[in-house]
Amino acid sequence: MVSKALQSMAKVGDYEIRLLRVFKTVVECGGFSAAEVELNISRSTISVHMSNLEARLKLKLCQRGRSGFALTEEGLTIYNATRQLFSRLAEFRSTVNALHQQMTGEVRILTSDTISLDERCGLDKVLAEFAALAPDVYISFDTAPLGEIERRVINGEADVGFIPHHRDIEGLDFLLMYKDKSLLYCGDRHPLFHEQDAQQLNESLKACKLVHAGVLTSSEASMQLAEMNKAAEAYYYETRATMILSGVYVGFLAEKFAQQWVEQGRMRALLPDTRFYNLQVAAISRRSGPLNKPRDLFIELLTQHIEALE
């Protein structure tokens, strides 16, 4: 049915692309209301666009009403095909841009957690150099969870990602940058905040509620979490720190990130000589694919920065 629907769209022009872009945004926002802000158009206009797309495809793409927004089986297939289409369009634009002497196009950067503000990463300096050398390139810069960054770089939906390096993935290049040491912290409201006896701490920690990132970032981290009472999940450092400061949970944070609360007397590292693990931060990019001069220039500048630090 879906293949016949695609055949019924004899040509895919600018109008059809616009309708598909609206559809993709609605799906990723989870409904019409949330998509209003993202698309900067009214809900009624979105509804008209969706109806026009369904009419052109001769398919029912979604259920919408009081029960909420949900894709039909055909809608899910069209959504996946739309993602592939926009990825191919981005590759085409990158190829064309690479053929021009004056660098244009877009570089899409995703970073995990607080990496972008770490001076060891030097992204502010790299971005300044990049903007000077490629002033006509549009930069898209956002944060996302580790797994999403890997997926989007692999699929060509992002050009460069910054993540904790926890595994090698076929098809990706890894630029190793710096290491972060993560310690186990509790807040000043936690019963263990004033406990100094190491044996008592080790024993008490077995029952303590732990808030963790929800992803396996390294074998060291897995070993530390193995016997702990994983009671809550918060991927980003900011949300995890808030849960630790509540006094209900203990949790691992990058030492550099947690230092601000340690200095204020609001957090304390528990057994820092044994309760820790290291994370290697890396920049990832696709090893193969279409020519992408903006991405290659960005990686080149980043590599120069890292080598200068070393």
Share of residues in helices: 40-55%
Strand content: 15-25%
Q: Extract low-pLDDT stretches.
A: none
Main sheet characteristics: 9 strands, mixed
What is the quaternary state of this protein?
single chain
Q: What's the order of the H and E elements?
A: HHHHEEHEHEHEEHEHEHEHEEH
Per DSSP, the total helix count is 12
Radius of gyration: 24 Å
Compute the average pLDDT: 89
Instruction: Give the overall shape.
Output: globular
Number of strands: 11
InterPro entries: LysR_HTH_N, LysR_subst-bd, WH-like_DNA-bd_sf, WH_DNA-bd_sf
Organism: Amphritea pacifica
Pfam family, one: HTH_1
Family: Belongs to the LysR transcriptional regulatory family.
Q: What topology does this entry show?
A:
Elements: H1 2-8, H2 14-29, H3 32-39, H4 43-57, E1 62-63, E2 70-71, H5 73-98, E3 106-111, H6 123-133, E4 138-143, H7 146-154, E5 160-165, E6 172-187, H8 198-205, E7 209-212, H9 219-225, E8 229-233, H10 237-245, E9 250-254, H11 255-263, E10 267-269, E11 276-286, H12 293-309
Parallel strand pairs: 3-4, 3-5, 7-8, 7-9
Antiparallel strand pairs: 1-2, 5-11, 6-9, 6-10, 6-11
Helix pairs in contact: 2-3, 2-4, 2-5, 6-12
